[in-house]
Design a protein that fits this description.
mainly alpha, 56 residues, 62% helix, flat, single chain
């Protein structure tokens, strides 16, 4: 199952924004066809969060 479909099926829309923020899911197309962009954007989100924690 594509990740975008899984999210829509299992995560209520009322908490989707917070769920994505908490789990570092970027606001991009989450279909398998866009996987490379998803990885690049998620890496950036994780790096930013880690940098804040480590005060780099």
């Amino acid at each position: 199952m594509d990740f975008d479909l899984w999210l829509k099926d299992f995560i209520p829309s009322t908490i989707m924004k917070e769920y994505k923020r908490k789990h570092y899911i970027p606001d991009v197309d989450l279909s398998i066809a866009n996987f490379d962009v998803f990885l690049k954007e998620r890496e950036s989100l994780l790096f930013e969060a880690l940098s804040r924690e480590l005060k780099i």
